[in-house]
């Protein structure tokens, strides 16, 4: 077993003027845990995910990786490389996360060259098994981002992060653009990959069923505040906050059953 890695938020908050997007909170994601962060649009969950990976800076408090301040790591090239090699982030907006002038082969291979120092042949050997895992055709590597559907781009964004072999993976709405028919397969793949490779998972979503499937712990956010945090089954069986009860009731009354992840 590899040495565990810890990503922590310590008394962290984020404000934009008078608007408090994330109220003060403490949390931890390790390379042996999976945390689901769930809430409706505007709850602050995506802002929280960006803070955790250093794409935004907290107004108060800090984020640490194995005790090292993430803000300090980002001040040096070596620190940034170590952070990106250890923690990977898959954003919800996949269109803007790809350079439209570069093929998908270049996009997926670049982090392997920059973060792991692999040459073209070695990078190819790492990329192809991940594409197969995500059910992406290899010929798509020659295409450009605009030539893919939203769901295909989302899976390529996931592939780009997985090839790095991070210790912690942060996913922001990674199945929201996928057809329901393939959501279950992708969720199974994420969970199995994280368990087999000892990768910690932070899974951000408004979809409670998907989040509960991949996460051992649930953190529920409402208007920037953490209103519930505990083991997944405990939160589902005995929620203590009215907002969590409302979320659960909404899914149970919804027109579709809870997501089938048996695929």
Automatic annotation (TrEMBL):
CDD domains: ABC_NikE_OppD_transporters (cd03257). Pfam families: ABC_tran (PF00005). PROSITE patterns: ABC_TRANSPORTER_1 (PS00211), ABC_TRANSPORTER_2 (PS50893). It comes from the Bacteria. One of its GO terms (biological process) is transmembrane transport. SUPFAM superfamilies: P-loop containing nucleoside triphosphate hydrolases (SSF52540). Residues 7-248 form the ABC transporter domain. Keywords: ATP-binding, Nucleotide-binding, Transport. One of its GO terms (molecular function) is ATP hydrolysis activity. The keyword Nucleotide-binding applies. The keyword Transport applies. PANTHER family: TRANSPORT ATP-BINDING PROTEIN (PTHR43776). This is Peptide/nickel transport system ATP-binding protein. It comes from Pseudonocardia oroxyli.
